Amino acid sequence: MFSASYEEGHTALVIDKAHSVPTPKKGEVLIKVSASGVCHTDVAVLSGAALDTRTYIMGHEFCGVPVAHGEGVDPNKAKFGKLYTITTITPCVHGIMGLPAALNIEGVGHDGGYADYVVVPQDQLVPVPEGVSIEEASMASDAATTAYHAVHDVAGIKEGTNFKVLIFGIGGLGHLGLQYAKHYGATVYAVDIKPEARKLALELGAEAAYDLATLNKLLTANKLTVDITIDFVATSQTFGFALSALQGNGVNIPTQGKAVIVGVSEESMNFAPLQIIGPGISVLASLYGPRSSTEAALDLFAQGAVRGIFNTEPLAKVNEVIDRLRSYEITGRTVLIPENHQ
Predict the structure, then answer these.
(1) What is the DSSP string of 119-172?
(2) Which of 14, 235, 250, 276 is 20 to 30 A (C-alpha) from 342?
(3) If we measure between CA atoms, which residue out of 278, 241, 237 comes closest to residue 259?
(4) pLDDT tens digits, one per residue of 144-188
(5) Parallel, antiparallel or unpaired: strands 164-168 and 187-191
């Protein structure tokens, strides 16, 4: 089968067109991969940020159909021919080699979805409702789960609320986060360096979409105050802007403002305690989400309440797509389709 693997010392994935098809062990299911989303985590791992010495097939955001069962698998929970989204970070995952659990999952540490077939534990299969495309089903595996959890569970943007929210980064996760916030009644402002991403934000219902220079002018003039910021970029600059947007101007101080950090970077984020204690700002980190977030994201796709913005490419072009992602050329999500599914 085709596979694209991380190997220490390589900045591109190593392609193997004759990789062995894995065999499921007890409690495992062999999945024929239908689609895999490409994530900035892949870029970070290939850059050497994780200092990973393991070799494994990458791709941690994917969906597919069961084609073989290992011993003990319940056939009603892994039906042949049925489409499933695969969750990856579960309570059963544990860190090894001094690394966090998030770096010991399918696609990051273990063989993942950049292949024709992959083996996963039965309890990581989430059934995909009718009407959800394979592209959106793959996005639900990571991007949608992560964005939904950050917006709904961590930020607390739920039905019946009417928060003002500032979202940084309208990319693979941010464009979904914007829609979740809007769905639950928030007034959303968006920030992105790319004109096409700002245009997309407005099309998806943002009140306004700013570049960094414009945002800086508004914050300096105390003309923008929000209740919640959700940062899918996570640089020292965006964090500083988030705190400024939550500070208020003496009249419009947010009640229990929240700065939610979702993006991953190696930059330091510095602040004085007075910056957050005075205006009552909570700084919260958000990683992935529980199975309930995956199920909720899939349901919203099925209802048409949220739509994934994506383009597709053949899995064989995975390295080209990662290079485009490195260069910030991608708006929305790029989803890879294995040749055996085309």
Answers:
(1) EEEGGGEEEPPTT--HHHHHHHTTHHHHHHIIIIIIS---TT---EEEEE--ST
(2) 14
(3) 241
(4) 999 999 999 999 999 999 999 999 999 999 999 999 999 999 999
(5) parallel
How is residue 48 annotated by DSSP? T
DSSP-assigned beta bridge partners for residue 36: 62, 336
Distance between terminal CA atoms of the chain?
15
Rounded (10°) CA dihedral 135, 136, 142, 143: 110
**Helical (H) or strand (E) element with 237:** helix 236-247
Say if residue 97 is exposed, middle or buried (CB neighbours under 10 Å; 0-12, 13-18, 19+): exposed
pLDDT at 254 over 80: no
Asked whether 140 and 298 are in contact (CB, 8 A), the reply is yes
Instruction: State the angle between helix axes of 291-303 and 174-183 in degrees (0 to 180), rounded to the nearest 10.
Output: 80
- CA 147, 173, 256 angle in degrees (round to 5)? 45
Distance, CA of 111 to chain centre: 19
Query: What's phi and psi for 154, nearest 5 deg?
Result: -85, -50
Distance CA 134, CA 310 (A): 11
- Which pLDDT tens digit goes with each residue over 10-41? 999 999 999 999 999 999 999 999 999 999 88
Rounded to whole angstroms, how far apart are CA atoms 227 and 164? Answer: 5
Tokens of 217: 């002018």
Inter-residue contact 208 to 189 (CB < 8 Å):
yes
Q: What is the DSSP letter of 334?
A: E
